[in-house]
Specification:
Elements (H helix, E strand, L loop, with lengths): L9 E4 L24 H10 L3 E7 L1 H4 L5 H16 L7 E5 L23 H9 L8 E4 L2 H10 L2 E4 L5 H8 L4
Parallel strand pairs: 1-2, 1-4, 2-3, 4-5
Amino acid sequence: MTSQSQTRPALFLDRDGVLNEDRGYVSRWEDFRWIPGARETVAAFNRAGWLVFVVTNQSGVGRGYYTEDDMHALHRRMAQDLASVGAHIDAFYFAPHHPEAASETYRHPDPPDRKPNPGMILRALAEWPVDRDRSVMIGDKPSDLEAATRAGIRGALFPGGDLSRFVADQRLPT
């Protein structure tokens, strides 16, 4: 077990609608557009010593709109672009399962990782030395906040706009 002094707070971020514009099943870099202030927010939390995780429902994989390889390629491009501004994501967690997935492989009646279920957050909490009490999830949907609550962390509903301004208004300690 990790002692409290070795743990770090974590910022959990939904992807579509928080880090990038939600244009519906974004899977290619050509279609990807950062939300204003998103890269700066990640960099600020990195500088403050926080862990930063992306926790994203990706039912487009399960629905057959794109592959896991496509999604991983997009996440690599995001990571490269973040590195160019001195920022990084510690881990990407994704939930490709959906009750109505086209492929049996991704079909599940209540996927434990798919928000509002807390599975992705709980995995990060188990795999990393996270200080749960000081951590926060920023999402743009009530299901993101429900996942945070069910995982025992604070949730903040991002209404859109500039993410760094939103973080400042929330008085999150970066």
